Fold each of these.
Amino acid sequence: MSTQSDPAAVASGDRVVIFDTTLRDGEQCPGATMTFEEKLQVADFLDEMGVDVIEAGFPIASDGDFEAVMAISKRVKRATVAGLARAGEKDIDRAGEAVKHARRGRIHTFVSTSPVHMKFKLQKTPEQVLDMVAKQCARARNWVDDVEWSAEDATRTEHDFLCRCVETAIKHGATTINIPDTVGYTVPEEYFALIAMLIARVPNADKAIFSTHCHNDLGMAVANSLAGVKAGARQIECTINGIGERAGNAALEEVVMAMRTRKDVLPFANGIDTTMLTRASKLVSAVTNFPVQYNKAIVGRNAFAHESGIHQDGMLKHQETYEIMTPESVGYGKTSLVMGKHSGRNAFRQKLKEIGFELGDNQLEDAFTRFKALADRKKHVYDEDIEALVDDNVAHAHDRMKVVALTVIAGTMGPQSATLTLDIDGQHQTVQATGNGPVDATFNSIKMLVPHEAKLLLYQVHAVTEGTDAQAEVSVRLEEDGRTVTGRGADTDTMVASAKAYVAALGKLMVKRQKTAQAQQGV
Ligand code: KIV
Ligand code: ZN
């Protein structure tokens, strides 16, 4: 759906615009920072999956954000690309610059409207805020036809004042009106009543699309978003896996599958190809290093697992006894034994296609070589193994440092030691280090080659599939001078995966350091 189609037509129809803010609100949660390449990868995936609006970032926040929004604007084929902006002229102009190359560009501009935010955060009177609303929408409208205005902390805003703000925003060119539950405070009945009240009371409300943006502090983000749609909102703002500030945002996969599964009570349409939801979840989890909880609705690894005897018996008799949607409908494939060391390049390419990867020739060749190496070491190669391998490959394609070789001596007779060779900017360098255990020894060897003061905040290992020969997927989070980065690595050898993850995180830290230094020097 074109979000530039007549807002009035969308507002009165049953089609819900899916606005994904994984790259903006999602990326705002501590540690979820993505690299430039990862952002492009996620944007491409969202576009292909049928997301209507991709909020690609907050262009004034940093040069990196600006560049990412600009690059996403240039490459996205179908979706509208939005850039976020506060009420100031500089913010709006920066967002306008960033989205100006998009086939469909949107400026999403916001200001706080609740008494507590106006008094303490903005230190402005309601009249001053109203003036800001008029000016921010008019300025954004000079850049694009598609302007979204948000009343930050709308659910704690006085109704009469909120009506005046929304009326002003529409009068000055906003075509989408977003009513955020910024602090995750509302409940479904209240949010329904709020949206219904605005649509009924605000003059010209029918000229704009109303939108939900619900945070999950009380676990009601999805329920609140759906209540908003029932009240007349026709856009839902959400994120993959529900990531976002604090407890996160409404999860895209949940709102979409709720509308699909309960059409009887939620008779609304959207453009999402639901069979891509599982891959989207895995991709976002991989690039942000935020694990998906096992029992997460729709995309958790247990979402379609039936453990108890009674349930298994029922399932064998009829799938509908315990499944309200099929695993296939969300792209959750059964773990299948697919490939082995005798599989050829064509079979590998075909397999990649089936599980949702289209690689260029060089990347394919690289992935195939790694697949062969994996198949030599691992008896059964599952779809999940191939996904981990390709994700790992794509994530590290642009790294300046790479693990070339690692030998670890572990066991009861300490100290444990690690001999590591890293490729740093094309030069091979080798060191040996000891440590209190194999992980410590490995990380110490990295520290010898790349001295740094970063603190290790998280070290997490999980097995990609079952079995003792399963690939390990390791996440490492580092912190230095308030900058947090995460890296990941996959390998059948847990120590190699650990070294890859640590080196990847360190690489990201170096990029961040460099950018800060450049910004300080005004480069
Ligand atoms: O939660 C919020 O209020 C936001 C706005 C910027 C839309 O993220
Ligand atoms: Zn938010």
Amino acid sequence: MASDTVTMDKIVALTKRRGFIFPTGEIYGGLGSTYDFAHYGVLLKTNVKNAWWQAMLQERDDIVALDSAILQHPKTWEASGHLAGFTDPLVQCLGECKRRFRADHLDEGQTTCPVCGGELSEPRDFNLMFETTMGPVKDAGATVYLRPETAQGIFVNFKNVLQTSRKKPPFGIAQVGKSFRNEITPGNFVFRTREFEQMEMEFFVPPDEAPRWYDYWKQARFDWYVELGLRPDHLRLREHDPDELSHYSSGTADIEYLFPIGWSELEGIANRGTFDLTQHSQHSGEKLEYFDQQTKERYIPAVIEPAAGADRATLAFLVDAYDEEEVNGETRTVLKLHPRLAPVKAAVLPLVRKDGQPEVGREIVDLLRRHMQVEYDEGGSIGKRYRRQDEIGTPYCVTVDHQTLEDRTVTVRDRDTLAQERVAIDALPGHLAGRLAAPWRSPKLG
Ligand code: GAP
């Protein structure tokens, strides 16, 4: 088990205090398990999503992007099996507290409420899709659903993408976007919410190559988290038992992270076989297959799907980065985020708010902001400002002092080692860019 000091409460407190994540509708008492991302949260989550896009698009040439609608044709959910089968078994307390629980999260055969001891109802299937009506007149409108996963928007566009992208299997379609699930028991901060962002990629392969690509994507996705700084001993791959498999899957593995709540799913990698394209083909009447000109073979590709959550990954990066350490007899809280993910790359801090230091500070911000996300801060003691930057995970603090006015050099303070180095202002963009691009491993690994 982790010997970390981090707890979910500390992450919730820090992200609220420093402006990463706020509870939704707080002035109205909050809307259970729903969160708004604030300035630093937006920057951090955007960096997570950009790192995902980079791995999927920029670093290879066999995957294309898609951004499909949240409201898909209702038949999509009939074909995918979501209308009939995207359910969780719900039981309700018939006693005092009337709470609802997922039957599969209770002990087997449990008949009494774990909170008040009241009798529990029989389980019933509860569909997790949010339903709404399309069109101005409620009763006359068509029932549509907020998508519970981004994947189906990819499958229904398979033919369009195949015709326009000049790709052939093996190739993938990647998508990032919001999904919605009316979870019975959301919780643990942004780990499980009813509105969340997914990063999904459907990789279409000749069916006989599916096992090989399944192994490939399990490893590639595991490595992605390690490259972005998650400690490998806090990550594991867990293959699902046959009785855990979804109806469409002939193999699924979870990448799990050791959250403060214990080992929990971060991302799922599934071998979906030909299930999805076959279903959409049958329900739409369109042939969703690939014709290989060379072999003259016609086949329905199998699908390997790495499906990640942007909010859940952001939470894992926050948890992994959180540290408290003794510095000069004081405890500092610091987010040791991978520099690529850090919301702000450099903060420019004049030592004093006089003697021309603020003016030079602003000049440096203008010099740097074309290259990276920077921030200027002149308020409060320098110690307080360093602490603030440590808590938002800023890798470098650039301090303007009296010497700067004499020789146009500044100090660059390293968040992780606390080492300070003197650098010429003109050389700063190159110096920082070089350090930000250098290989990085979590200092928590020792
Ligand atoms: N297309 C397959 C699919 O959606 P999933 O395992 O249900 O698979 C994939 O979801 C990922 O989406 C999960 O590993 C998780 O990171 C994220 N996710 C799923 N439900 C979530 C929720 N209620 N809140 C936050 N993230 C969620």
